[in-house]
Amino acid sequence: xxxxxxxxxxxxxxxxxxxxxxxxxxECPKDYQDVYSKKEITQIPKTTRPxxxxxxxxxxxxxxxxxxxxxxxxxxxxxxxxxxxxNTIEAGAFDNLQKLHELEVSSNTGLEKVKAGIFRxxxxxxxxxxxxxxxxxIEKGVFDDLMSxxxxxxxxxxxxxxxxxxxxxxSNLTTLHLARNKITALAKDSFINLNNLKVLRLYDNQxxxxxxxxxxxxxxxxxxxxxQNRITSLPATTLSHTPYLEKLFLDGNLIEExxxxxxxxxxxxxxxxxxxxxxxxxxxxxxxxxxxxxxPK
Length: 297
Hints:
Blueprint: H1 2-18, E1 33-36, E2 54-58, E3 64-65, E4 78-82, E5 88-89, E6 102-106, E7 113-114, E8 127-129, E9 137-138, E10 151-153, E11 175-177, E12 199-201, E13 223-225, E14 247-249, E15 271-273, H2 284-287
Parallel strand pairs: 1-2, 2-4, 3-5, 4-6, 6-8, 7-9, 8-10, 10-11, 11-12, 12-13, 13-14, 14-15
């Protein structure tokens, strides 16, 4: 009996070691997950199994998420569209998904526009990922119903400007990722009402400056990344309302000078990168702060 157990255990170990690792969650689906990953798939199924809470569409030929596509799937909590051929998302596409708290639509070369009404009735949504598409147009009001949203990823798109007040309804937002777009300018009120924001990433855009007072509402900000833009100067008061800032990335810009008071009051700063600029000298406060990381010259 002991020998049989030992043999079974060794066989189990051998199978475990030979099994390929699951690099992505959808590669080894669990019972509560449905995965659609064939090029032959062109449409979203009308129903799914009653116990399914998470649904993945990966490398399919689906080109449109039509209105009411998930009307008969109210139990869904997570929904992912990754590397499909989506070019259209209709208003009401996610109606009846009142339990949905995570949604991703990423890596679609044909998705250029995000229309108002797409995300209506998603009152529980906490994480929205729209990265690595070709989005250049975001209609005003598109995020108005997402009062519970905490994380928004719009990085790696073609966004050049933001509609006035586009983020105003997102008072619970903690992470806003706008990196690797084509944003040329920001209004002073771009981030107004984002009082809970902790991470703001704007690197790899085309910003030449920041308006004075743009971060007045972000007293809890922990990370600010402005790397790889075209910024030549920053107002002395840029960081005066962000006393808890821990990470600041200004590298890869055209900054010639930083005011002596620029870093005043930043007692929690752990990581600072200001290399690859045109600075002739550093503020005295930085020179005496040995804990800062300046990165390679």
